[in-house]
């Protein structure tokens, strides 16, 4: 959920449509796994606030693949640890982070996160 405002802001700034992937389909409402435009045969980028292991990204990527999307990149604000980059790389995903937790700790700003 933390990536929603980031993805929305990027969508507004770039005029690139945004979709939101649910952890599981709800039995009411639209009953869709991904809300927004159709992603079939489209290049998508997954956006997260904080990435630690990358587990949820891998799950979302698998769901997006089932819908026909093609994902190469993952953007995040903060990358915690190094395992996530290796896990994502095995699935052909490049992780691009604005900050690492190590960088924030060195500047003394980690208290905010």
Description:
- This protein has 113 residues and is of the alpha/beta class.
- The protein has a single domain, classed as Rossmann fold, CATH 3.40.50.
- 35% of the residues lie in helices and 28% in strands.
- The protein is built from four helices and five strands; from the N terminus they run H-E-E-E-H-E-H-E-H.
- The strands form two sheets. The chain has a three-stranded parallel β-sheet with strand order 3-4-5.
- Helix 3 links the parallel strand 4 (70-79) and strand 5 (94-100).
- The radius of gyration is 15 Å and the shape is globular.
- The mean pLDDT is 88.
* Strand segment count: 5
Give the number of domains.
1
- Tell me which CATH architecture applies here: 3-Layer(aba) Sandwich
Regions with little confidence, pLDDT below 50 for 5+ residues: none
Q: Strand pairing plus helix content: what structural class?
A: alpha/beta
The main β sheet shows up as: 3 strands, parallel
Number of helices: 4
Net shape: globular
Whole-angstrom Rg: 15 Å
Sequence of secondary-structure elements: HEEEHEHEH
**Average of pLDDT:** 88
* Strands side by side in the biggest sheet: 3-4-5
**How much of the polypeptide forms β-strand, as a percent range?**
25-35%
Percentage of residues assigned to helices: 25-40%
The level 1 CATH classification is Alpha Beta
How far apart are the termini? Answer: 16 Å
CATH fold description: Rossmann fold
